[in-house]
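Annotators were shown the component list below and the corresponding predicted structure, then asked to write short factual statements about the assembly.
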Amino acid sequence: MIASIHAWSTIASAFLASSVEAVEALTVVLAVGVVRGWRSALLGTVAALALLAVLVAIFGPALGSVPLALLQVVVGTLLLLFGIRWLRKAMLRAAGVIDLHDEGAIYEQEFRALSGGGTSALPASRTEWDAIAIVTAFKAVTLEGLEVIVIIIGLGAVHGLLVPASLGALAACLLVAAAGLALRHPLARVPENSLKFVVGILMTAFGLFWFGEGVGLVWPYADAAILGLMAILAIASWLGVRVARRRGERVAIPGASA
Amino acid sequence: MNVLTRAVRGLIGLFIDDGRLALTVIGVLILVGLLTQFGAAGGALAMALLVAGTIGALLVNVIHTASTVTRQPTKTAKR
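Structure shown to annotators:
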């Protein structure tokens, strides 16, 4: 029962987190493909995926030789930092302190930048190789792909759940790629901020759990404690957003804080 | 060198957005690690310190940021 909860929460977390990263990569690749040609955009994407595959092939097997406690501490720390970074940003967005993530606006921004704007010449033909397009697509896919790898390792490495975590991530990437191919438009309707909020809570809960186990803490109810940590984080985040919103309003109204 | 520096910065950026929050969280983790290693705190106390310390650091950071940052007029946001 507990193993099943763990496996499914790992798959769901990997799926949600990877879908956010895939949507972000897709936005850039779409802009590159539409403006500078699909040939170069796809070459940059394939090259990045190849680099990521090489990194996984080199470092993946090495994980098995790391002592479990050390792996738990390192993975827990990285996952905690990663999750809390997302959670902080999602809370600030939910409180209206910073603006919501807008894939449509980011697409327009990339589109304008890649269209030249007087600084970079467009390729003479959309079928010729274009260094700017290749590098832009390569950078976007590599960066977002690295985040996906961190997520998979963080969620799956410690309890031997790398395969379920990878399957969740792969399903998300394929789904986003298929949606991108079908729509040929950034997936602006994906509720990215809500997803980041949920994933931030999941990652932070997993991070706290792994770090605690790594330093020798025995969590009550074993792996099910992750669910409790998620609940505590959700309540604390909700309260934090409410307080931050009120504080922000006081700052926005001159003299209100006096 | 420039490419390597940018790659390292990008890698660090995956985990650290706000330096103060990251340092506080790392401080909490080190404290919990030391307390448990030297047996200075019981399991329940260390657990409470880990959870409350991390969540407290996050809440203080978010509320402090909300109190100091002026709201932006545009809709676009960084990733």
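Statements collected:
1. The helical segments of chain A are 2-36, 38-59, 68-94, 103-114, 131-156, 162-183, 192-214, 225-252.
2. Confidence is low (pLDDT under 50) at residues 254-258 of chain A.
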